[in-house]
User: What shape does this take?
Amino acid sequence: MLRNTYIGMTLLAGLVVGCSGHRESTRTEPPGRQIAEPTFTVRDTTITATFDAVGLAEPVQQATLSTKLMGSVTAVLVKEGDRVTPGTVLARIDARDLEAKRAQVDAGIAAAEAVYQDALVQARRFRALYSDSAATRYQLDQVETGLARAESGLRTAQASRAELDAVAEYAEVRAPFAGIVTRRHVDPGAFAAPGAPIAELQDASRLRISVSIPPAVGARLARGQQVDAEIDGRVAVATIEGVVPSSAGGVYTVNALVDNAKGQFLTGASATIRVPQGARPALLVPAKAVVREGDLLGVRVRTGQGVELRWVRVGTAYREPGAAHDAVERGHDVGGMQDAAPSPEAMVEVLSGLKAGDVVLLSEK
Assistant: This one.
């Protein structure tokens, strides 16, 4: 009975030990035929630290278009996503009442023109009579006053015509700049009122990133300076447009411009501006040394026992060690390279899993 009890306890202890194991952070590959592979020795490197400020990337030019008229929408000539050029007609508003007013204004101009011509003839005649002493100074002054009034009336009528023409231009809603129609607010038959939105237009060829930063960080920036940026996971170069105190107090607002002529960045996407903050130590390895297994990233390290696959946590990748302006990708814990792989020449910062002096293999397994 005691012997059976001892055996049972021994088996139970074995089960406990077997269940208490955990996933190791390294894996040593069995030794095999030695094949010469290119290697890289990890060493301490100095890189430029950055302050990351997050904001949104919005188009520099965007507009909500409306009209000054009140009337029915007779036509909407664009749809969301249409690309338009400056002056393209987007919608038309019923402006038949303006045509009636135009006839009245034209009639008033004709009458004012007739009065002016008559006053001009009278003025010329009395000027000649006055020079021959056939008319008094008082008579000449009266005629000249009539001419001035007639000229003023004509100008008033002509100004009314110009005002009417300006208002009539709102019968056609036109694109003020080249861009993409992002939204249409009306359809044919809808009633348009002054100031009511008709369509929205944006030009995404240039984007503006607005972020808030501490004053000490803002002091490092100047207008025209180029800094690293990231828009929705894609690397960009931003040019500082301005650094101004924020109305919130205690922070500065930074506006930076990004060229988007090729349309590689989406408007309204999350964006990050990286402000250089001096140097810091880091461990960098070539990007091609990093291998993936599922959601994990690792590097193959050469040790005295063979080749060991060691899991690592990566950060930012750089094209050249120590050059923050050449950053090519922002990392995320153990998934920093999954969205857009850096170029083979990139150097990836390793946050954990390696130490200076480790020798990593560059070729894939």
